[in-house]
Design a protein that fits this description.
alpha/beta, Uracil-DNA Glycosylase, subunit E, 4-stranded parallel sheet, about 35% helix
């Protein structure tokens, strides 16, 4: 059964953010924890900590400190939608977030979307407004079983490294 849900998590960023990573919509676990990538099976924190050659943050304060240290902003493409549980494939009636609030206040050098659902709605609704192309990274969701952690780390590292290491 679809439920209409409004995104309960504010964007995470500061004026020093250089990278913006956008998911599709927070999972049930993330909504419960009121922060991004809260499901223990999601590989996001493992992948991102490997990208930056850092220890994986476990607590919410550690995750926020990690994101600040590495200048990463997080949010989701979708502001509200009809969804069944955490299933991206069930998403309907999408309203997207206005990422210009982040773009105006931070020196974002690269926008990345975490998975195909985020890419689909970004390209359809956000890119036409901002003119900024996003790099689609393979989803860190456990539902994306075709991608091993090692393969995710390699792909994410290459893409983010290009942005971080550019002048």
């Amino acid at each position: 059964m679809l439920n209409h849900i409004t995104h309960p998590i504010p964007p995470f960023y500061d004026k020093n953010s250089l990278i913006l990573i956008l998911g599709s919509f927070p999972s049930v676990k993330s909504r419960e924890q009121k922060f991004f990538y809260g499901h223990p099976q999601n590989r996001f924190w493992k992948v991102l900590s490997s990208v930056f050659d850092s220890d994986r943050p476990e607590t919410l304060p550690d995750k926020k400190a990690f994101l600040r240290k590495y200048h990463v902003a997080l949010w989701d493409v979708i502001e509200s939608c009809d969804i069944e549980g955490s299933s991206d494939s069930s998403i309907e009636n999408v309203v997207t977030n206005d990422i210009s609030v982040i773009l105006k206040q931070a020196g974002i050098r690269g926008v990345f979307v975490n998975g195909k659902t985020a890419e689909k709605y970004y390209k359809k609704y956000i890119e036409p407004k901002t003119g900024i192309k996003a790099v689609c990274l393979p989803s860190t969701s456990p539902a994306n079983a075709a991608w091993s952690v090692d393969k995710l780390i390699k792909t994410w590292s290459e893409a983010i490294g290009k942005v971080i290491n550019s002048p």
